[in-house]
Design goal:
Mean pLDDT: 93
Number of helices: 6
CATH topology of the largest domain: Pseudouridine synthase
CATH superfamily of the largest domain: Pseudouridine synthase
Shape: elongated
Distance between the termini: 69 Å
CATH architecture of the largest domain: 2-Layer Sandwich
Radius of gyration: 23 Å
CATH class of the largest domain: Alpha Beta
Protein name: Pseudouridine synthase
Number of domains: 3
Low-confidence stretches: none
Order of helices and strands: EHHEEEEEHEEHEEEEEHEEH
Enzyme class: isomerase
Keywords: Isomerase, RNA-binding
Function: Responsible for synthesis of pseudouridine from uracil.
Number of strands: 15
GO molecular function: catalytic activity, acting on RNA; pseudouridine synthase activity; RNA binding
Helix content: 10-25%
Largest sheet: 11 strands, mixed
Structural class: alpha+beta
Length: 321
């Protein structure tokens, strides 16, 4: 038998979802059968699969020890450095300025130096993340940014914050503004561009068209020109829809690929600029909650921005030509 005292990060979850995370060796069919046979009890009583856990609950599993014999996992995040550019931090979240070249989660290379591992290591050293006291939660990212794109990433320190922010992002109640340098000049100084985007099979690539296609999704890209020099333009972009590679693919489709982008642009166009990564940065975040945000209401209306984006400064100083 094994019992779990439900803490704040476990609360709100369905019984079956919690057990799947806390007891990964337990087969799903046996989990459901054990609930039916009352081998799994909540506060000494029968529970249902869909019962929601509350802080302070006692969940008891009358099961064989073999399902609990999980070796203590190596804390992989301890192998990552703790270097972070923190824009803002409080008891619920971190806003981190991710630099180009750093992946947010582990990729096929398996290297431990990822943004989330750095954050978990940082919080572990501060005593704010204690894996041995958690049954089903670890600090997690609320949004992602491509390896070679920089900008603001939100990390939740607790499960209630992760839940609220994930819903707010889904409901598009957080505004993210980007800076980018594109080749050429757009006819209009500002506007909203509409097109259709389709993922290209299993490739990490998308295609953009003017007309709908099977599997295609509408994209809306709002922009305004901040500066021009003939060969390039510095623009601010507000994603009204958030699709994979939307900014890069949309402007490339229009004949204005991003400086440094060789996936949707051409290397020959970037010669003499020394830019290895696409000139794209998620530089500003605005919390625009339309409904209640529970314990995060204090964030509503707040704006956070990266103070220095190097390519924007290079552009304004005449170093990009």
């Amino acid at each position: 038998m094994r019992s779990f005292q439900i803490n704040a990060n476990d609360s709100g979850q369905r019984v079956d979802k919690f057990i799947t995370k806390a007891v990964p060796l337990l087969p799903q069919p046996l989990l459901y059968k054990s609930i039916r046979l009352k081998r799994i009890k909540l506060n000494g009583k029968r529970c249902e699969i869909s019962t929601r856990l509350a802080e302070g609950d006692l969940l008891e599993l009358y099961l064989n020890d073999e399902f609990f014999d999980v070796p203590s996992p190596e804390l992989i995040f301890l192998r990552a450095p703790t270097a972070l550019d923190i824009l803002y931090e409080d008891e619920n979240l971190l806003l981190v300025d991710k630099k180009p070249g750093l992946v947010v989660h582990e990729d096929e290379s398996g290297r431990p130096d990822t943004l989330i591992n750095r954050i978990q290591h940082y919080l572990y050293d501060k005593g704010e993340y204690l894996p041995e006291q958690e049954h089903s939660f670890a600090p997690a990212l609320c949004n992602r940014i491509d390896r070679n794109t920089g900008g603001i990433v939100i990390a939740a320190k607790n499960a209630p914050t992760l839940r609220v922010l994930n819903q707010k992002i889904k409901d598009r109640e957080l505004q993210k503004l980007y800076l980018a340098v594109i080749h050429g000049q757009l006819k209009q100084k500002s506007g909203v561009l509409k097109a259709f985007l389709t993922k290209a099979g299993d490739e990490n690539r998308v295609t953009v068209t003017n007309t709908p296609s099977p599997g295609g999704r509408t994209i809306l890209t709002k922009y305004r020109i901040l500066a021009e020099n003939g060969r390039f333009s510095l623009i601010e972009v507000d994603l009204l829809t958030g699709r994979t590679h939307q900014i890069r693919a949309h402007f490339a489709f229009l004949g204005h690929p991003l400086l440094g982008d060789t996936k949707y642009g051409f290397a020959r166009d970037n010669r003499g600029t020394s830019y290895k990564y696409q000139a794209l940065y998620a530089y500003q975040l605005v919390f625009r909650f339309q409904g209640g945000a529970e314990h995060l209401e204090y964030l509503n209306g707040q704006t956070f921005a990266v103070p220095h984006v190097w390519f924007a400064e290079d552009f304004k100083n005449g170093k990009i030509r």
